[in-house]
């Protein structure tokens, strides 16, 4: 008796299963749109520690020279981090929100799409938290947000926002309420009646099918003296008959059977 479904698996294993299923359903940006987004975000990277030190040093030199303590104008930069981004989204300030797809634990950012949908903030999911981290001088980063951009980049940002709204905000209900369509597991497939089963195309052949082909191979090869092209046609016909798609397993079994016999 198979009691697998009654086993209480450890919590970390259940989290692995849930995370794997969630990653299958994630809809990340395509490569072209993601490249354009990263190029635009690269222009609004926050200053490094060295750049800040040089800026403050130049300001101190001007103050010492008697030119007045005039603060420099703060340029528009990216906002990073879950807490910072959540606060600005609640105030409807971001023009665009970017979320990494591989955040672990995923609970840190799993609420952001619903929050953005409620507040009307465009959001998107991009592959790689390390790519977002490089934009803000960190190893990794979960989210970044565009709040302000220069006038020359407003048209580029508007095009990105339009495409992202169509694929994410506009399809929010469809993405959340899409039922089915994922590949079945082996246990789910075996639970069906035999007359309803349809063999998945990516499954390897069974040993019974390999045995049938091996004996067909030996019979054609040893007991008949036919031309090689006729043998190939017979072999291909047998392959099509049993609908075998994984040639690697077949060849291994044929070699083993032929060497034994």
Describe the structure.
The chain is mainly alpha-helical and 261 residues long. The protein has two domains: 26-176, 60s Ribosomal Protein L30, Chain: A, CATH 3.30.1330; 200-260. Helix content is 53%, strand content 6%. The chain contains twelve helices and four strands. The protein has helices at 11-25, 31-42, 49-64, 82-90, 112-119, 129-135, 154-169, 172-176, 186-190, 207-222, 228-242, 247-260; strands at 79-80, 96-100, 123-126, 143-146. The protein is elongated and about 95 Å long. Component of the ribosome. It comes from Bos mutus grunniens (Wild yak). Pfam families: Ribosomal_L7Ae (PF01248). Belongs to the eukaryotic ribosomal protein eL8 family.
Summarize the structure.
This protein is mainly alpha-helical and 261 residues long.
Instruction: Identify low-pLDDT runs.
Output: 225-232
Could you tell me how far the N terminus lies from the C terminus, measured between alpha carbons in angstroms? 37 Å
Count of individual helical segments: 12
Query: If strands are numbered along the chain, what order do they take across the biggest sheet?
Result: 1-4-2-3
> CATH H-level name of the largest domain... which superfamily?
Ribosomal protein L30/S12
Pfam family, one: Ribosomal_L7Ae
Keywords: Ribonucleoprotein, Ribosomal protein
GO molecular function: RNA binding
GO biological process, one term: ribosome biogenesis
